């Protein structure tokens, strides 16, 4: 999932912004218009007040106070003051709400993309890292519209507008000094800070995620680490990760502070220059003292356009890194949805099936053939590594064979409609994960519509009803990762979950592992009774499973010799 | 973390004080610098007022170059002081938060059982980070609020009692509103924090179970479930924000009205249209401009404080949660879990009257003694407490009753690390750390990796992995089959050259042939004199042990 060369931070940021904009276009456009209104009202307010007081003072000194129009400027001052406040409130609510909505939909799309990744990617996915992407990365993206693009766009527009008005009202020189001073200095600061911040930001971000996943690892593996005397060392490593991250954060903070210092000086120097220019022009009699004051007051107000840049710069690196990752996950491979066909039966036919892992010398499966009809059960045996699990994955359509054919219900597996296929067959892998929640929730994950009676029937089939009843029924709450059940109980709950789906083809990878002989047999018989019509294919090595099955296929034996081939 | 419906503001306040106590001196120094920097603005305003009024005559003011130079000079001083105040505050915040984070890591790594890893990680990362803005923004803003407005008020009264009065009336209304809004903000912020925690917990589990979710075709249901949770979080976040926006809008409104009134009053007074509000002499143009420049800065500190108000609310919520975390005292493993010399003595094990509370059930174990080099199978129905017994023997949990002796000593915090240095450990559900396979076996210790791989019969498995022993493993060994992951834990145990091996269902998930290989590996360990204590359902494995101890049948 590493970003490729073309996917630069800037481009990813822009793509994310377009995604957010696409999701919430109207609200964001209105928000942008309001933020410009806020800036313009602020500049006008201060400029007007400065002009008004200076002009009033001049008129008062000249004894012209009685003919000076005080009402229009003072009404305008009040209107601008109140309008600006209202516009600011509206702008904040609008842009934040729109951004949060857009980010929520990005989060949901990210999870959907993560879930639909190919099986081999899912197997290798690490929970904490995926969590970081969904939560921290997406959180970092709120700055893209709120602190980066909207303030820069509105600030730029306000600068240009002020330039035009000052040129018209005051004088070109003053207008040019103010606009070029702000634009050049802030662009230079932004460029320098962004260049140095990107690296520190990337490191800080990586450190923060490393700390989080290291810490979660530490908590989850603490027993193993403790027994081998590695807990202290790993704890120190996790703390050292945090210390490095704090150092990077310090570097970032310094960059941000320096940028803040530079921007503060920019405001001071531009305002001082505007005042000096205005004074010179007024002393020469080119403009009135009141107009000279406008330039100074307007530049004081314009510092508001460069203020937000400071935060933007501090966050830029972090946003760029997050944008790259989110963008690449959203664009990554999905499972190919085969065809749109489906079969009426679940008769399984496997012909000359071969499969080889990437870069492996030896094929895992070499020209395997067998058939399985509805209501029949077949146990696949073979030494560890002989490809039993791989065969089940192939039959479930989660892997593609190199050669050979899998036909389910007289339709080739790769032509099946994905949803239909999942509801027709269910695979129970060797290791399944249970989640925190009640027994009912665990079961309803497989069958959301099932009522309690259905759930009890399934629990009964896997000889777990008694255990669940003793623990307090369907409301019994499992802890994180399904803790609260023993290994064998958890295994049976997983089996109950799978039969609840009522599959016509049930693929079971070592279904009774961790169960004693008697329970194992009871479970197998219960499953058959629950699903009398289903074809059941198991990968097995326990005698209890192979004797229970109607037929056995041994993968270690040459296939040409197996008699029951079609 | 669970939501905190009823919280005590005083306790939270106290918890926050406690968190920042160690950096109090730095915070005070920084606050003084921040206040000093704000007080430079009246000086700059005076320079500008004199310069502009000088243009109006009759008495000429300072020249353009003088004005600009003085204005810039004071501006540089102001920016420098602000810069140093920020640097001090950032260092203080880092120090306070790092200390709390270290405390969390150190306790959680030794806890035997606690809340979800996701929510504890959230507390240690983004939640603790919420303390930083409180120190860097809220603290200096509060210091400025208590000084700068008073100075500006005094200056205003000096020139015009009417302007002073406008500020005096509009000013105190602000804290009243802010207090009201602040209380609402804290509640909302706590609800939001609780939501982040539970959404994290929900997600981390879903993300670890993605394969199952796919197989059960529950993807759409999980996604829509998450969409609901994420949307709730958005709504709660928006609640917090809209309260914050409302408070700053109220402030801004007061500030805007105040400044507009000052501007209009000063304008009228300068025109001579208003006679009241000043003292004996009429308001001069310089004084008018000065007052106009000062008025916004009367409100600015209060606006800064209000912007930082939800920083305090968030910090209080986190401090409260941290205090609550401190209050719970989960059982910790015995000892530190560090590397240490081996406990001397012959590795005998004895249990006397040992019992452990498991939920609402007390598991009572038979008295057991295991001689050095003996191999013992622990058998019993599922859930009888076989795994817990192994954890007891490894000192990962302490018994609630009774006494465990190892190598002649009581198994206590003092002996546990040294005892574990003699153990090998094969858990039922291995958790692999995010590192290479080699690191997951050797944990960076010197030893004979190849020999352990041979003993566990995993050589061929590893050859099929990309990168061999350097392959990165998924957290529960993704990419390896159950039996393969199990054999990696055997290799890890062999690598440690233990005197006692504790194994939980070592042959589960294995076919007969591989189970045979694992048994051979275990017996090779036994032949070297290693005691084997093995929880199992497998009668074939139990038959190979010297004896079998039934667990759960003695009541």
Structural commentary:
The complex is a heterodimer of chains A (566) and B (555). By secondary structure, chain A is of the alpha/beta class. Chain A has helices at residues 9-23, 25-61, 71-115, 119-124, 127-140, 143-169, 172-220, 222-227, 231-283, 289-330, 388-395, 418-424, 439-444, 452-461, 465-471, 487-500, 517-530, 543-548, and strands spanning 348-355, 365-372, 377-381, 403-408, 411-412, 425-428, 437-438, 477-478, 505-509, 535-539, 551-554. Chain A is built from 18 helices and 11 strands. Chain B folds into 2 domains: 9-327, ABC transporter type 1, transmembrane domain (ABC transporter transmembrane region fold); 349-550, Rossmann fold, CATH 3.40.50. Helices cover 62% and strands 9% of the residues of chain B. The radius of gyration of chain B is 35 Å and the shape is elongated. The relative contact order of chain B is 0.09. Residues 1-6 of chain B have low confidence and may be disordered.
What pair of chains forms the biggest interface? A-B, 160 and 159 residues
The CATH class name of the largest domain in chain B reads Mainly Alpha
Give me the CATH fold name of the largest domain in chain B. ABC transporter transmembrane region fold
Which CATH C-level class of the largest domain in chain A is it? Answer: Mainly Alpha
What is the name of the CATH architecture of the largest domain in chain B?
Up-down Bundle
